[in-house]
């Protein structure tokens, strides 16, 4: 695996009005790796990813893309992807491809295992199929960095595994994949590096082995429990706003 930095995040904070959601987050992402962002509900994963892809402007700090200079540098699957109604899956990808000179829709659908749904209208896709179409959309134009926000959410176990295998295979093609997830088993199988967010700050980061050794455990669940404790409440930043 190459060790070139593709993304550098330096002291990034994001507030919404008076609500500080992420604070002073710094890390870098190496090319060709799968990096997982994990953390409890409300810890700031989506806000961090949206800031990294330029969907949100950081309140403080700098995000620098340092990968290859291509037409599309970062592909992004939002937590809830939306598509224009009336288009088929293939037409949706053809549309994005036409904007970027970004490749053959059939090949993009094949990459995520969605060829059989090519002619189905997007509003008639199942939740899992929508996620897969969103992942295909995120890879249009072959961006060196693909950011996937909970791509396996709502998918059955086989599909979740398929999505993570797809992500790992993409990273093997010299593409870097940054993925947020609550599925600890799949993160353990797939991730080269893990960033643990808690209350909007980086509580820990490193390879699985580094995290296991630091927290004297043999699972990510153990790492999370050591950081967050066992709780049945979602931490809500900024109170009840
Ligand atoms: N636009 C906004 N205005 C105010 N607060 C916000 C806004 N967007 C997010 N937040 C708050 O920021 C915190 C982090 O939310 P975020 O969606 O980033 O967390 P998350 O780790 O992705 O959660 P989950 O795992 O549940 O998807 C939450 O308390 C949320 O209510």
Automatic annotation (TrEMBL):
Pfam short name (any one): ABC_tran
GO molecular function: ATP binding; ATP hydrolysis activity
Record flagged with keyword Transport: yes
Biological source species: Natronomonas salsuginis
PROSITE patterns, per the entry: ABC_TRANSPORTER_1 (PS00211), ABC_TRANSPORTER_2 (PS50893)
InterPro entries xref list: AAA+_ATPase, ABC_transporter-like_ATP-bd, ABC_transporter-like_CS, ABC_Transporter_VariousFunc, P-loop_NTPase
Name recorded for this polypeptide: ATP-binding cassette domain-containing protein
Keyword Nucleotide-binding assigned: yes
Occurrences of domain ABC transporter (ranges): 7-224
Key words, A-Z: ATP-binding, Nucleotide-binding, Transport
